[in-house]
Specification:
Elements (H helix, E strand, L loop, with lengths): L3 H6 L3 H10 L11 H8 L2 H9 L3 H12 L6 H5 L3 H13 L3 E2 L5 E2 L3 H4 L10 H4 L5 H12 L9 H11 L4 H7 L1 H11 L4 E3 L15 H7 L4 E2 L4 E3 L2 H7 L25 H28 L12 H11 L3 H13 L3 E3 L7 E3 L1 H7 L3 H14 L29 H14 L8 H11 L6 H17 L2 E2 L2 E2 L1 H7 L5 H5 L10 E2 L4 E4 L5 H10 L1 E4 L4 E4 L2 H9 L4 H11 L6 H13 L4 E3 L3 E4 L3 H9 L8 E5 L2 E4 L3 H10 L5 E3 L5 E2 L27 H20 L1 H7 L13 H14 L3 E6 L5 E12 L2 E6 L4 E6 L3 E6 L2 H7 L1
Helix pairs in contact: 2-32, 5-7, 10-11, 13-14, 13-15, 16-20, 17-18, 18-20, 21-22, 21-23, 27-29, 32-33
InterPro entries: WYL_dom, XPB/Ssl2_N
Pfam families: Helicase_C_3, WYL
Length: 793
Amino acid sequence: METYADWLRARGDDELRALLSARPELLAPVPADLAALASRAATPAAVSRALDRLDRFTLAVLEALLVLPSPDGLPAALDAPPGRVDDALGTLRRFGLAWGDDPPAPAPGVRQSLPHPAGLGPPVQEVFAGYSRERLADLVTDLAGEAPRGFADAARLLGRLAELLADPAALIEDAGPEARAALDHLTWGPPVGRVADARRPVRIGTAATPIERLLARGLLAAEDDRTVTVPREVALHLRGGRLFRDVPADPPPLTAAPRDPRPAEVVVRAAAGEAFTAVRLTEELLERWGLDPPPVLRSGGLAVRDLRAAAGLLDVPEWKAGLLVEVAYAAGLLTRSGDLDGEWLPTPAYDLWLMRDTAGRWTELARGWLKSDRVAGLAGERDDRDRLINALSEAMVRSSAPATRRAALDVLAEAGRGVVVGEDALRARLGWRQPRRAGPTRERLIGWTLREAAALGLTGFGELVPFARDLLAGADAEPALEKHLPAPVDEIVIQADLTAIAPGPLVTDLARELALAADVESTGAATVYRFTPESVRRALDAGRTAADLTALLTRHSATPLPQPLAYLIDDVARRHGHLRVGALSSYVRTDSSATLDEILADRRSDPLRLYRLAPTVLASGLQRAALLDGLRAMGLAPVAEAPGGGVIVTRPDAQRAEPPPTAEIVRLRPEEHTDASMISAAVRALRAGDEAALLGAEQARRRADAAPSGEPPRSPSMATVDRLRAAVDRGGRVWIGYLDQQGQASSRIVEPVRVEGGFLTGYDATRAAVHRFALHRITGVAELTDDSASDAS
């Protein structure tokens, strides 16, 4: 008799690849052989995940297979065209949820995962199987009008009961309208109800309540003291023989939201503008946090006041600030430093991110958002225990978030050009496409997805734009976006009112220097900066000189440097550094003793605890930083002095934090990183493992390709990586030398699949398994020539 494993074994490689593509979680890790794959595919968790991916009609076909005695009745039972039913059966075979060709049968584990298929209870012979023989005999006697003859065991009594309930119309009418109303509540499922004292034996002549009348006539079966179930035959009679009320074979239409269509160029430019804004705001926020990082809460996450401050800094609503923070975290640009008393800081990856162009930066942010299981919309809400949910906390995690985002965007991608899908239509389409994932969380996630996609620039005026479609398809989205982004400029317009106008995005170096020497006054299509004494002093404190600032602004100004700005820079620079502050705890020195006389005479200097050491030196018991702040509060412009007399740059350097080794910046589901090459390698491993299991391990090792004779190959490290990457691109096998953890060298024949993260992933022909090799343990790589192949045979 053929088993499920035998059926899988008889599938072709293309069919196995299709199965693993549809259910990639079966590959974590790769099963030893096809029998192990069959066992894993039948586990409740694996079956449940596969069922979650089925659309409403395909799921209905599977439920009908569990209910109907023959699949020939599927088209009539579902009121659907036979061709559409055949397509659904093909999908179920591809998912491994139905097996066998004539007729198809539900796969192992499916029946347990769907206890009430089509909302129906078990058939009579199953639902009454828990009754005692005596109670069954009383029930059959009441229904037949005479005691059963020749029924000595429960099996025969159950058979007779099934015959009596095959047409329950008379029994339902005899039970009365109140009993019929109780049945109607359970007719379309779920077929289970809760009552009091269901196990108490009751006869037709003594039944008083509607439930007792139903139990006495076998129209309800008592499963335990409080649970009753409608037998399948009774429910089907009440439904008029129909399995479902309404299961459309095709998805609901994508009803467009009412609005006038906008030109395609306008839609794309609007989305590109939002994409550029998201990149600019993320950079602005992380630059600030690199200098002045917010603390990590003891419970984890970001304090509400810090999120509010970030929103004020970026001049955006709090929900958008929370989105940008979460996206930066998901993209690996932001992390926490340390486990206790940590701070939220940019990572070294942020500096690499800054080196990319705007389109490349946006791509990283968008991919992080798509793959993240964190939900920014939850920030500021309350959890089940009425505790506040903070941004960047673990309470933001929802495992269904990435799948819901992707599903919603896929629906938008299906809409034609100029069609803006309404939120209700989107919910209806997803409700048909993934009915088992429905619920309040998904409903809210859909709304948040639309809002966040617009804020990040994936949609314009509600329509998915071409570069977002490229991103979803796994293609390079940067060229399509780049041509719609404003080109970075390296010129500004400096005006006599001490303002500078940046007519577009600035090149990175100029943007950083200008942010240091001036304050942002307004943003929009053009950014307006204002120069003030405080901003110029900030640049001088950071080590810039007046000549540096003047040269920078002259070089990048589209107009001659206005005299008021030149005077401002010279005036602040002339006073800057006139006083020097060191540590005694601290001291003040200057070339002008009269200046020190004025300081000592000023009452505001009393808290500074100054005393004169020399005509040009004052000492203080305060720390240097406190003394600097006190003198600046008096309107002076001191600088910090090093022990050798040099000026100390007092502007703090930007800080960075490495993500903890155990922290997952983005939690990735198996389907998000399983590509076609990995699946092909897994199929080879399964076939080899199956052969080993069927023919014996020793015989399989003899038939497997052995390493060529001779010492394991050796090659320089960079050449090794280059050769492996070339082998991945062209396909085929290579010969590698590999050191185990004890330093023992061995030879392997490998089909490389992927080289990344310090590892080579590939099919190890000598072990008949997919394996990951640490690159630093590979001693060398050699091409597998025809001679070596003949040696291997």
